[in-house]
Design goal:
single chain, about 575 residues, alpha/beta, six-stranded mixed beta sheet, five-stranded mixed beta sheet, 13 strands, about 15% strand, disordered C terminus
Length: about 575
């Protein structure tokens, strides 16, 4: 092995030594002459070693063959080459420029590194050769009074030590391989004997198995087919062929076990399509199914196989292994970009967007259910703030939503628990400086805490409680107005939201309240809060006209959304 792998080493030695001698020609004539003489010695030794290796190959074909003389000649040649390299480093160190010094160190390190593998069968040879190449030059650099090459010297010694350790590991591996080969040879002979006996038995078994296999083949195929069908039915969504809720949870639990064992992280993305309900309502479910299938295909481009599932309706879930928050955000934005590309379905162009919530394992949850809930919660909050956006779960969000849920539950019972109160703010006529009307202001006191209307009014809107609460406020205000005697014709102003106005029971509730309290409609002022971005302006206009027809005074407060840049 030592001699067989040495041909390239001989040639590299000649080329490397020649490059160092002839590439840097700015030496003094006497120095160059010395280098030339040493080069001649190196080339002569390398050529002799090359011819000796060729002779070894000829002898290798003869049997019997004694390898000891060839090993002695190879060792003598290697020692000679190492001594010449060491002499070159020591003799010409003081004459080298910075570039020449760096080039020499690189060449010596490369030669030593290659020798560390080729010479590893012999500890003595690899120790001597790597030491001869690296240590003299490194010591010269370290003890140099100018200290400009000190770091090169230190690096050279470190590299030499690393080669030493690697070579000894290779040597140990080589010896183990030889022993293993010897053991294998004996085992091979034994295996040949046993194999002939085994073949006889196998022929008999094969004949029997062929008959058995023929009878089992049809049965196994049928079982496999039915098993695959059952798995698909229980774990796959038939429309998109993605994992369904059950299949995704199983897969996610397996991923969590692996991620937990590796102490790694992953991201869970909850994806909700924006505008899909309008597609189903206006274009039909057939077009909606085509759109969902196309969206599923697009989302699969951003996930690994079986890492995407359909959670239900127009909701998808995806898991991104080995991801941090930045990676998860990048994938989520890429998914959004894929979703927003227009889709052609049955000659209809459909353009959707997606709102995506992200939860991270293990920061935001330890179980699959926790992660999906947190991501879903985040998606819901993002959709409430700005559709078509990406958000990451946070404890602040969790606490806010938890408090909103608690307040929402309490708000459902606020009327029965008599926690709601109507206060009245006077409205003065600036011309006569007299009281013209009062404005009804709803207040909520929950467990000795005053909850701001800015908090509980949006909660009532989102939870569908506004019609009931609005009806109570309207009745309360009209009842109180009917009991006041201090001014004839005093009017009351009540705030009404657009969602309350558009409720089917609003006009009926209003008429009943006016009739019960016997308050004339002219004494009721309704202040309607409308957003410029309300989708059904026509329906609002119809309701307002019906109120005006009853003699009720209506004022519109327009909310304009301003974006600061």
């Amino acid at each position: 092995m030592l001699i067989g792998n040495s041909f390239v080493g001989f040639l590299m030695t000649i080329f490397a030594f020649s490059g160092l001698v002839f590439f840097f020609e700015n030496d003094a004539p006497s120095i160059f002459t010395q280098k030339l003489q040493l080069w001649g010695v190196m080339v002569s030794v390398s050529i002799l070693r090359l011819f000796d290796s060729l002779y070894w190959r000829v002898k290798l074909a003869e049997k019997p063959y004694n390898p000891r003389p060839a090993l002695i000649r190879f060792s003598a040649g290697l020692y000679s080459t190492g001594v010449i390299w060491a002499l070159y480093s020591v003799l010409f160190y003081s004459t080298m420029t910075t570039i020449e010094m760096a080039a020499t160190m690189v060449v010596l390190a490369a030669m030593a590194g290659g020798a560390g593998t080729v010479l590893s069968p012999s500890k003595t040879l690899v120790s001597f050769y790597s030491t001869a190449l690296l240590v003299p030059m490194s010591i010269c650099a370290i003890v140099d009074e100018e200290e400009k090459f000190f770091i090169l010297g230190v690096l050279g010694l470190i590299f030499w030590f690393g080669i030493f350790l690697s070579a000894f590991r290779y040597h140990k591996f080589f010896i183990s391989t030889l022993r293993l080969k010897a053991n294998n040879n004996s085992l091979v002979e034994q295996m040949k004997i046993e194999r002939s006996e085994t073949e006889k038995v196998n022929k008999l078994l094969i004949a029997s198995n062929e008959k058995l296999d023929a009878s089992n083949a049809n049965l196994e195929g049928e079982v496999e087919r039915r098993t695959a069908d059952l798995y698909k039915l229980s774990n796959r969504d038939p429309l998109t062929n993605l994992l369904n809720r059950n299949g995704f949870l199983k897969h996610l639990n397996n991923l969590l076990d692996t991620t937990r064992a590796l102490e790694n992280s992953l991201a869970l993305l909850f994806i909700d399509l924006d505008g899909f309900k309008q597609v189903n309502d206006s274009l039909g479910h057939k077009v909606g199914d085509i759109v969902l299938a196309e969206i599923a295909n697009r989302l699969q481009n951003y996930t690994e196989e079986n890492h995407l599932g359909r959670w239900g309706g127009d909701e998808f879930v995806a898991v991104i292994p080995y991801a941090n928050v930045d990676t998860a955000r990048a994938v989520a934005h890429a998914m959004r970009s894929g979703v927003t590309v227009p889709i052609i379905a049955n000659d209809n162009q459909v353009t959707l967007d997606a709102t995506i919530g992200i939860a991270m394992f293990p920061e935001h949850g330890e179980t699959a259910v926790d992660l999906i809930q947190q991501a879903d919660l985040t998606m819901y909050d993002q959709k409430r703030q700005q559709r078509g956006s990406v958000g990451v779960f946070s404890e602040v969000l969790h606490n806010e939503v938890k408090r909103d849920q608690q307040l929402c539950e309490r708000l459902r019972c606020a009327i029965d628990n008599r926690e709601l109160t109507v206060f009245y703010q006077p409205i003065l006529d600036v011309n006569s400086n007299t009281l013209s009307s009062v404005e009804a202001l709803l207040r909520w006191k929950c467990d000795d805490e005053q909850i701001s209307p800015d908090i509980f009014i949006p909660l009532a809107e989102r939870s569908g409680l506004m019609p009931e609460i609005g009806a109570w406020v309207l009745n309360r205000a009209l009842i109180d107005l009917s009991h006041w005697q201090f001014k004839q014709g005093l009017a009351v102003s009540v705030n009404v939201s657009v969602s309350q106005l558009l409720n089917d029971s609003f006009l009926k509730t209003l008429d009943n309240a006016l009739k019960t309290t016997q308050i004339s409609s002219e004494r009721l002022h309704l202040e309607i809060t409308e957003s410029l971005f309300a989708s059904d302006k026509g329906a609002v206009r119809v309701k307002v006209n019906e109120l005006v027809a009853r003699g009720i005074k209506v004022s519109m407060m327009i909310l304009v959304q301003v974006t600061h840049r």
